[in-house]
Protein: leucine--tRNA ligase
Amino acid sequence: MPCTLNYSCGGPADRETDTLDTFVDSSWYYLRFLDPSNSDEICSRACACNHLPVDIYVGGIEHAIRHLFYARFIAHFLHSEMGLLPRREPFSRFLPVGLVLGQTFRSPTTGQFFPFCEVEKDSSGTIRAKATGEVLVETWEKMSKSKLNGVDPADVVARHGLEVTRVTMLSNFGPHAARRWSEGESKSSASLFATTCIVRFTISRPECV
Structure:
């Protein structure tokens, strides 16, 4: 049923209630996970006292500068004004995830970006556009659609398999460090798996060696 009137025509209307930024709306989700069937409160104080604070908050730079701020602000309000939370700070530790950088190719004259499939390296090692031969500027930047430097995980899995892709993602870099994604890393992981398989076969079937 309509809950208000349209101020322009005086007719019945529904009031819009979804007016906050999504980061604000999602700033207390961790509380709801603790008590999802509670129809009277976000979560009971007993659940909050038993399980808070969150051990570790994992997020990127956008979480550090926006969502984390909102979540801490709301937790402070729920603690100080409503007494729902046992403490003001909801998270014990924040782990900022490093950026994944992609190889980026750009025209120095027009600023146009080129995907990897449209560039080539000449005999001197210079990166050029295949279509025009123009020398391109090569950098490593945050992967994005606009810079045409993204890598589709499905393509990596199709070429190297799921386990090799997982090892590549976890190897060589801590979760907080920025990393340059290159095909060479996947090949190194694949070589490791191949060596492991050979060693396993040798140990299990020494008579075949």
